Amino acid sequence: MLPRLPYRIQIPLVLALAVTLSVLLVSVVAAQISARNARLEIVSTVQRVVDLLVAQGKPLLAQDDTWRAYTLLRNTAALLPQTSKGQSRAALLDAQGRFLAGSDPLRLPTGEQALGVLINGRLLPTVSDATRPRTLTTPDGGMALIEPIRSDDNQTIGFVFAEVDSAAFAPDWAALSTPALIGAALAILVLVPLGWLLGRRMARPIAQTADCIAQIGHTDAAQLQLLLPHVNDPELDRIAGAVRQLLIEMSARQANALRALSAERLAAVGRITAAVAHEINNPLAGLITATHTLRLHGDVPDARNRSLALIERGLQQIRTMTTALLPQAKVEDRCMTFDDMEDVLTLARTTAAQHFVTLTSEQDLHADLCVPSSVFRQVMLNLLLNAIRAAGQSGQVHACLRVEASKVSFILCNTGRHFSDERLQKRLLTDDGNDPNGFGLWICHEFAVRYGGGFFATMAAEVRPPFTTCLSFWLPNLARHDPPKTAAD
Fold first, then answer.
1. Which of 230, 289, 297, 396 has the fewest Cβ atoms within 10 Å of its own Cβ atom?
2. Is the pLDDT higher at 156 or at 235?
3. What are the backbone dihedrals phi and psi of residue 145, each rounded to the nearest 5 degrees, phi first?
């Protein structure tokens, strides 16, 4: 259908089609490059977050500091892509490959085995296979990074686990295609009228030449030569020149016919006069041809370049823009509030549900509350998780926060095997800080000593049934007393 249309219509349509196809092609390539660069940027960001957690998580693993690890992960996870939408998460693992703390406690529950088991539908390598950094990918495009944390003597003390779902890598095709569509629309709006004017200008001499050819044999050749257009384009000038040469030859033939007729009429002059007239007309046609050749060589030679430059200027209008956050992290430093206990209970309920343990709590308030938040929350979470394990399947755990004028106590009871204060003190005296049973008792004892508090197991006679073991941790209440002296003081 397109070849049947006039050139004045074909030219703007072809120009608009060429611009549209060029814009779409460039947009597709640019979108693919942007999507690939965005994935590389996400991978680089995740690697930087892992490096940051490796550097800051080493002392937390050495101290088995679950709460500070959770605080670090909660702040650092904001650097991961699409964390607010739940599409990425991070966790610190202990040396046995269990979750010490995770940015998403529901999906990365504290205390659960991570390495060597299925986590979120992905089988993670075992502890022995994770001694070097590992990058795992899924068929749908998701990824997970596991990097060991080593002590100063090159021993593996834990791992950093970072996971990004495939949805975080999905490019925003709408955002990438919008500039291309806008550019194509603007190009078409500008180039269609421009192409229409250009097509009319280019088709005008062709139409004039066609009209002259159509009138050959019906109009005097000399008049048709005056109607032929004079153009600067070499190709169009060749067409017009060929028609002009045809008209010149026709004029010559007409003149020769007239002269031949005159020679016949001038019978008195005879055949010699007619021959002489014929011999004069032949060199006259040659002179006219020479004049035409001189006219061809005298035209401006750079007209075609100017036309091509006009077309090229309409095809060069697309440009491409990038942005970093550098987000920042804050460190919490405040007194503990009653809501902190609810936070810790929320973290522990997931583990309790997995072990079918009934978890209850109470608050016994007799004074205002002020103890170091990060320390007390860490102790509460550590004791809760260990009490849940000690209670066993279908056991019971009861937590009590008692606030007095002089001290703040956290009392935790469970229905598991009895654990006496004698065994507790023996464990604290022989433990070097690396508790293989996962109770973290040594860490709680260190906090009690450092902040002037206490940590002990209640005697069996004082434990109310059905509970068999109660551990009590307390710190001085700073709301009513001066800050206690630390062990370092």
1. 297
2. 156
3. -120, 135
